[in-house]
Amino acid sequence: MHDQESPENLPDAPAPKPVADHPYAVLRNGDFARYLTGRFVATLGQQMLVVAIDWELYRRTHSALSLAFVGLSLMVPMILCTVPAGHFADTFNRKKIILAMTLLLAASSLCLALISYFAAPVFWIYFCLFVIGAARTFLWPASAAFVASLVPHRQFASAVTFNSAAFQFSCVVGPAAFGLVVALTPHAEENNTAWAVYVFNALASLLCFGLVAPIRHLHKVKPAEPVSARSLVEGFRFVYQNKIILGTLTLDLFAVLLGGAVTILPMFADDIFHAGAEGLGWLRNAMAVGAVLCAFLLAHRPPLQKAGQTMLWSVALFGLATVLFAVANPNSLGRWIALPSSSWFWLSFALLAVAGAVDNISVVVRQTLVQTLTPDEKRGRVSAVNSLFIGTSNELGGFRAGIVAYLFTTPTVLGNAHATGAIVSTLTGGLGSILVVLAVAWIWPEIRKLGKLV
Q1: pLDDT tier, 61 (very low <50, low <70, confident <90, very high otherwise)
Q2: What distance in Å separates the CA atoms of residue 402 and residue 70, rounded to the nearest whole number?
Q3: pLDDT tens, position by position, 312-361
Q4: CA 204 to CA 45: how far, in whole Å?
Q5: Which long-range contacts (CB under 8 A, 24 or more apart) does 217-221 make?
Q6: Which backbone phi and psi does 222 adopt, to 5 degrees?
Q7: Cα-atom radius of gyration of the chain, to the nearest Å?
Q8: Where are the chain's structural domains?
């Protein structure tokens, strides 16, 4: 980076801000902009698909257990495929891996469309989810390492911020787009079918393929290590030896595992707020709305000066917001505080938005650290470990939330049976997230001392 000098006739004027430091400088990179657009389109389709599956399964089964198995179906292939996925990302062309997995996701979505249209047994939905989980496991490490090679080092934190913003914006638009597509699909509500959403996701994946394919990028693979147990698990060894990366991944893993309530939001929408599909769409949007606003705030601020402390406080606030969301409804605090049902709903929406905003801060810190502290020849394997931690926390967290909600689905003073399960699951998870922050801050003091990111 070269600083520009002030003109000689204006000796006291401040130096113009270098172009590279402009909040949107990274978007002038054509390849990155094309990749970002492609991933946004694909992620939008994936967000619609996730909401559609939760909605269709709950409408067809009315069981929290069916929602729990969604997370399990996505998590199992992640565990099985993480090690080979990381090795592939470091050994083969990352762009080709991204394109191949994108096509596999499109094919899986078309299969889901057929299963939904013909009302096939729900087992086949879980089978397609298994395939989708495997494809995503190979896609994520290749994609993360791919982005690191598209932008200069000094712009990488900005690239992560915009990548996160694009993801979260897709989370905002996705549930609303799901509701629109279902509303426009004849007899979808009566038949509990979302086949049109799955078709839309397949088309989104194909559009992503078309946007990423022209990117001029060559992955210069270094002489390949012999395939051995040591080379395959190098990502795990590197993460274990780097205490900062290990601590931040552990923090994210257990905080989201315990605090995630997204999977059981259909229960809040139907059994607590009685808001139906429209209410579910708003609740699913809430965290993403907060995250998008936070991302643009981060983009206009200088790099975090106390990244470690900021991340710890962010996860703690995530847990607190989750606790408040669990009790801010007519079935719990509503028994002592007289508020209209709609007021409780929008208060819950605001709390989820806060959770999404602070969660996005920890995402930016973690993603930046993982990529900047890892040598390029190991980025695929380390990114695979990162994906395993994050994906496992999301999917296993959804499984945990569904199981706890199922176990506590009994009538109590909190209200109807399903409401009780949802509240207990979310409340205990939020409290657990706060305890995890305290444990990580004590076990890895390096995180508390972590300063400027890049």
Answers
A1: confident
A2: 9
A3: 999 999 999 999 998 888 777 766 676 666 788 899 999 999 998 888 88
A4: 6
A5: 217/31, 217/94, 217/95, 217/146, 217/149, 217/150, 218/93, 219/92, 219/93, 219/94, 219/95, 219/146, 219/149, 221/90, 221/91, 221/92, 221/93
A6: -75, 165
A7: 22
A8: 21-449
User: Which amino acid is residue 338, in one-letter code?
Assistant: A
The CATH number assigned to the domain with range 21-449 reads 1.20.1250.20
372-385 burial, b at 16+ Cβ within 10 Å, e below that, comes to: eebeebbbbbbbbb
**DSSP 8-state secondary structure symbol assigned to residue 271:** I
For CA atoms 241, 247, 250, 252, the dihedral sign is negative
Q: How far is CA 261 from CA 176, 407, 421, in A?
A: 19, 15, 12
Ranges 171-180, 206-215, 285-294, 355-364, most confident = 206-215
- Report the pLDDT averaged over residues 131-141: 91
In the chain, count of helices (H) and strands (E)?
17, 0
Residue burial 425-449, b: 16+ Cβ < 10 Å; e: rest: bbbbbbbbbbebbeebbeebeebee
CA distances from 305 to 247, 359, 364 (A): 19, 18, 13
**Percentage of residues in the chain having pLDDT higher than 70:** 84
Query: What are the residues whose beta carbons fall under 8 Å from the beta carbon of 118, sequence distance 6 or more?
Result: none
Two tokens, residue 317: 């606030």
Rounded to an integer, what distance in angstroms lies between the CA atom of residue 54 and that of residue 194?
A: 10
Q: What does the DSSP 8-state code read for residue 380?
A: H
Residue 208: which pLDDT band, with cuts at 50, 70 and 90? very high
* SS percent in the chain: helix, strand, coil, step 5: 80, 0, 20
Residue 49 banded pLDDT, cuts 50, 70, 90: very high
**Token pair for residue 35?**
């990749």
**Distance of alpha carbon 62 from alpha carbon 339, whole angstroms:** 28
Task: Tell me which residue of 398, 402, 405 sits closest to 422, measured CA to CA.
Answer: 405
Q: Token digits for 145?
A: 């390492």
- The answer to whether the CB of 137 falls within 8 A of the CB of 82 is yes
Cα 78–164–76 angle (5° rounding)? Answer: 10
